[in-house]
Specification:
The complex is a heterotetramer, with 2 copies of chain A and 2 copies of chain B. By secondary structure, chain A is an alpha+beta fold. Chain A has helices at about 10-20, 65-80, 85-90, 95-100, 110-130, 135-140; strands at about 30-35, 45-50, 55-65. In chain A, strands 1-2-3 form a 3-stranded antiparallel sheet. Chain B folds into 2 domains: about 5-10 and about 260-415, Aspartate Aminotransferase, domain 1; about 15-255, Aspartate Aminotransferase, domain 2, CATH 3.40.640. Chain B is globular. The chains are: A alpha+beta, B alpha/beta. Chains in contact: A-B, A-C, B-C, B-D, C-D. The complex binds pyridoxal-5'-phosphate (2 copies). One pyridoxal-5'-phosphate (PLP) binds near residues 76, 101, 200, 327 and 328 of chain B.
């Protein structure tokens, strides 16, 4: 029998991302912010992105939720750094699950929430782009 | 690192005295209690002793009123379904409190599929039932009233004496699930006027693998495990002899040490309660405050702006074992029906954890828990968009409202696109 | 005085290896498997190992097909009632053999009160069922066929492969109670075509307090202990962790030592059988003779002109533990339905005792039993009016008739004024 | 925990009468013999009496039955020695149960069987008396 201390609810990778979350926080000047909630479990996830030249240059998260929700958002923000907007739009929760080395079946929805938060952040970014054509061309012409 | 086990409402370690008494029944006194030879008679004698010890714990009229089952849930099922089966000709309606354990609710729902109906009596904000409401719920069809002695999640102690005055007047047996309270609260079935009562010895330092149904001779139950004459024909199959022996010893010691255990544990309960409240902002105790209306060993907290499982996991990584929601249903994502029944705000129900104390916890344990729990909360709040939005004035606190911002529940509904359940 | 335990079909001593594996789960690893912290996860891991060990014993497709219950009887009840509950829409008829254990019969009788019907398929004089009769008993309403692998009383091994060929053809699940045979007979649920199977670990040197239901994914069962998500929602209530751990170890060792145990025990069985038959006149073996049709560890005797309990008591006073009739129903005065099913004469059914061998019995034990049992029989025959009346030529022997005198049964009817049952 | 050896199914008195039965056997020349059976359990009990001057001078039994049936017949034969026929006719199984220090409830019928066997033996005796008035008066006049 192994000592009780050696047991954790989730696998090593998930526990690591829960205990030492990557990219936790916000940006002063995010380019896109997505905040989504899961009615089923009450989790709320917020992902903030820095985007430059159609590429995600940085990502941060804040999560109200269980261990696997926190780990999922940590992993998701890790994964999408450096990806193009097009790539992020095709991002699937399955990538998070795989990178985390698996999640318990009842917790798969946490990775879905991360996908949704990401996509909401991209939508937010794109909505902002549309609403500030002036600024944008100014910046381009500068 | 310190290890602090604060989940005694999930299970307790077996008493060394109980294990010692059990040990010969594994390899030496291994007979089947149904056998007529000395190996059978020897274990039969051991079981008889245990039956008397358990009867004494709850002051049952006779050891014959004690039926041993395989666990607390089976005892509850036998109490409700076995009683209903034996008495369905008298009526098909059951009255129960809204905060009963899932095994009570599940048994009653099963009976519903067999043509029974039931009335759930609500509880107040502290989780306590109003005896007058029990009286109102009783119909001429009612054959059983089920109200637990104390709630497993929020520790609310129910007014059993007042309720049994009503059930006695109406001539209806009263079933009290004492799984959460036995060993932590004095129980005298005769003085309390209880006809059916269930215990789970692993909750008071006895072994797993055995449950207890007390039923007075006035409350008939029929077996729901068929096929043998064991336990007076009320539960077929080979008895779990070692566990029954251990349950007897645990019951005897629980009775002997009851006052001492209660005194010790409630001192720690007060200390933990006061320490938590003093050091952690936006935290709320669910259920009655420590004192006569609350079970001495359990504290149920809602920590605002963060969620329960994360608290549990970070506590665990600090060597502190706590529960999140009802330990028996922790695989479920849903908010505990107990918290729903006391009308707890959705935001607070999410951040729920339960600490339940035991006889071996110390003052140092409590100091450690208070110190570490504050860190746990701070870590999770730093990660929580809710905390930030609260600090920004976007959402308001439920526990200590400032009158600015919308509610968490509203916010959650907004971001999820659906109302919170 | 020598002690010879010959009641291994009632219970067996726990293996020291199993006890050793169980021990830490009492006072150290005492968590509740439902808890999410390390104390819960630790025991969850232990249970998973045990599940795999038990699955291996019977070559189950997956550990997930193993459900732990509180004893063999509960497993049987869940197999039959749980299956019936989940499948009643497909039909309400069950086929079973006439010599099933009382817990199978009791479960089927319970279902009868719920509107089910059943057909009991008779057995031949040796206790073996005819597969063709099973086929005939199946109706379009039949949802389950129940035939035990071997009988607990007379050791008759049933033609399971032939029966499963029929049930497979008809698309009806086959439930085999293996409580009497597991650990003493090779069982491969996949090769045998079994969809539901029950075990009782205390019958193969595992602990009491745990039973096992194997159910293939093709055979759905619903819980009959309601209220929690344990065992995949099929059996609510806190798991008996130490017993489950012990069951796993016992299963692993039973598989490892199976051939050796069978070889040892059947050698003793032959020796005991031959010795008894050679030294004691007017004694009859019930069930098939030692060999491929009989379980290797049990001998069921009818000693003419004397009654069973007396034999049991005098054996006991000689340190020899034997059973009289079915150990599970020994409080009943009635003749075993198994003996009735094989058409055993009333006189012989009265004088019934069962000797069941175990791995620790020795050749010397057998010599001792043969010597002492002869004395026991002689003592009781000296006391018996029947023996004297037989010697006087007034009544005849059933086992070795001389053609003079009336039958015991006739005589018993004459003196009691009523026909024997 | 007491050693297994110390356990017996029945109390000490019952066990003693089962293991060391008193008055087991028959008489070459019994004055009355009663053989009865219990349909419920299959027990058969035979009690033989020697009777002189209206008094049971000796008694013997043979029993096919369980331990308590054997003990009951042993005790019954012990008890009625020296009693008058009238007393034996009023004999109750309760006396056997009491003298044995109690029997398990399911075994009370064993003591009833002993009572019945005794009474059958008396009936047999009386029937014989009626059928041999000649012999009897002869003996008296001798
Ligand atoms: C064939 C058979 N099935 C089921 C059972 C019930 O098992 P348990 O007594 O372990 O509950 C028994 C018990 O004797 C049995 O012999
Ligand atoms: C109040 C209550 N009743 C019944 C039960 C079921 O008891 P057990 O888990 O021992 O089977 C529980 C378990 O948590 C409980 O808390």
């Amino acid at each position: 029998m192994k000592d009780a201390k050696e047991y954790t609810l989730y696998n090593e990778t998930v526990m690591d991302h829960f205990m030492n979350p990557r990219n936790m926080g916000d940006f002063q000047d995010a380019d896109g912010i997505g905040e989504v909630g899961a009615a089923a479990c009450g989790d709320i996830m917020k992902i903030s992105l820095k985007i430059k030249d159609g590429v995600v240059t940085d990502a941060r998260f804040k999560t109200f939720g269980c261990g696997s929700a926190i780990a999922s958002s940590s992993m998701a923000t890790e994964l999408i750094k450096g990806r193009t907007l097009e790539e992020v739009k095709n991002f699937s929760n399955e990538e998070v699950v795989e990178a985390l080395g698996g999640l318990p079946p009842v917790k798969i929805h946490c990775s879905v929430l991360a996908e949704e938060a990401l996509k909401a952040a991209i939508e937010d970014y794109e909505a902002r782009e549309v609403s500030k054509p002036a600024e944008k061309s100014e910046a381009l012409s500068a | 690192m310190r290890s602090v086990y604060l989940d005694h409402q999930a299970s307790t370690p077996l008493l060394p005295e109980a294990l010692e008494a059990m040990t010969p029944y594994f390899t030496q006194a291994f007979g089947n209690a149904s056998s007529l030879h000395r190996y059978g008679l020897q274990v039969r004698d051991g079981i008889a002793t245990a039956r008397a010890q358990v009867a004494a714990l709850i002051n049952a009229e006779s050891p014959d009123d004690i039926i041993f089952t395989g666990n607390g849930a089976e005892a509850v099922n036998l109490a409700i379904k076995g009683f209903a089966d034996a008495n369905h000709r008298k009526g098909k309606h059951i009255v129960l409190s809204a905060t009963e354990h899932p095994t009570v609710l599940g048994s009653v729902e099963y009976l519903e599929r067999q043509g029974f109906t039931h009335t759930k009596v609500p509880v107040d904000k502290e989780g306590i039932i109003d005896p007058a409401a029990v009286r109102e719920a009783i119909t001429p069809e009612t054959i059983l009233v089920a109200v637990h002695i104390a709630n497993h999640d929020i520790g609310a102690i129910q007014p059993i004496k007042e309720i049994s005055a009503i059930t006695r007047e109406k001539g209806i047996p009263l079933f009290c699930d004492a799984v959460a309270s036995a060993g932590w609260y004095p129980i005298d079935v005769q003085a309390l006027g209880i006809q059916l009562l269930t215990l789970s010895p692993h909750r008071f330092y006895g072994p797993k693998g055995v449950g207890v149904l007390y039923r007075s001779r006035r409350a008939r139950v029929t077996s729901h495990i068929h096929g043998g004459v064991q336990e007076g024909g009320r539960r077929a199959g080979t008895e779990n002899v070692p566990a029954i022996i251990g349950a007897g010893v645990a019951a005897e010691i629980a009775l002997r040490d009851l006052n001492e255990r209660i005194a010790h544990v409630s001192r720690l309960q007060h200390k933990l309660h006061d320490g938590m409240v003093a050091s952690i902002p936006y935290i709320k105790l669910n259920g009655p405050k420590p004192g006569p209306l609350r079970l001495c060993n359990t504290l149920n907290w809602s920590t605002e702006f963060i969620e329960g499982e994360g608290q549990l996991l970070l506590c665990d990584s600090n060597g502190i074992a706590v529960a999140s929601g009802s330990s028996c249903v922790s695989k479920s994502l849903k908010v505990s029906h107990v918290l729903e029944a006391i009308g707890l705000d959705h935001a607070l129900a999410q951040g729920n954890i339960i600490m339940s104390l035991g006889k071996d916890n110390t003052e140092e344990d409590i100091d450690y828990v208070i110190e570490r729990f504050l860190k746990v909360v701070n870590t999770l709040r730093r990660m929580s968009p809710m905390w930030q939005e609260f600090e920004d004035g976007q959402i308001d606190s439920v526990i200590n409202p400032r009158g600015i911002g919308k509610s968490f529940t509203q916010h959650a509904a907004d971001v999820s696109g659906r109302p919170a359940h």
